[in-house]
Amino acid sequence: MTKHAPTPARSAAAEPAAATRVRPQTPARSDTYDPASPEPADLIAALRQDADADRWAPTALELRLCELLLTASAGDGTLTAPRIRAALAEGAMSFITENGGRVAALLASLLPLLAEPGTSPARAAVVDAAYTLLDRITLLARPAAGAGAGRRAEG
After folding, report:
1. Which residues of 121-151 are buried (b: 16+ CB within 10 A; e: fewer)?
2. What is the pLDDT of residues 1-30, one digit of tens each?
3. Is residue 72 classed as helix, strand or coil in its secondary structure?
4. What is the rounded CA–CA span in Å between residue 29 and residue 130?
5. Residue 89 has what pLDDT?
6. Per DSSP, which regions of 17-148 are E strands?
C-alpha cells in the first residue's frame, strides 16, 4: 500500500480569516441587553410621533408587510414570534434597510418579548401598542373618506 504525503512544493490553500475566527460565546439572555438599542416601547412612541407629525410615512414594502402581519394575526389579534419572523423574512434585506428600517427594527425588538415564557401586563401592553401602531401604519396610505388619494408613502 502506498502512503500519500503532502508534497512540500504545494502548500495548502489558506483559509479565509472569517472561516478561522473563533466566535465568542453567546451571553446568557439577561446579558444581551444593549443600552444603545432602543426598547420596543421607545420605538413605538418615536415612530407614532413621527407618523403623526408627517415626518415619516411607510414605504410600499413596509405597508404590505404590516398588512400581511395584521392579516396573519386577524384570527386571534395576537402578534407572535413566528408571525413576526415570517414578516421579517418576507421583507428580506430591503425591509431592513428601506426607510431607515424602523418598522423592521420595531418588529425585531418585539421578538425577545414574545420568545420569553409567560406573560406580564407590561409586556402585553407593549405588544398591544405595536399591534395598534401596525394597524395605524396600514391606514396611513389609505385614502380618507371623501379625500381622494391618500398620503403618498415616501421611500
Report:
1. eebeebbeebbebbeebbebbeeeeeeeeeb
2. 444 444 444 444 444 443 334 433 333 333
3. helix
4. 22
5. 87
6. none
- Per the CB < 8 A criterion, the answer to whether 68 and 135 are in contact is no
The grid cell for 149 is: 388619494
pTM for the complete prediction?
0.61
Mean pLDDT of 58-64: 90
Q: Are 34 and 112 in contact (CB under 8 A)?
A: no
DSSP 14-77: PPPHHHHPPPPPPPPGGG---TTSPPHHHHHHHHHHHHHTTS----HHHHHHHHHHHHHTTTTT
> Where do we find the cell 379625500?
147
Locus of grid cell 394575526:
73
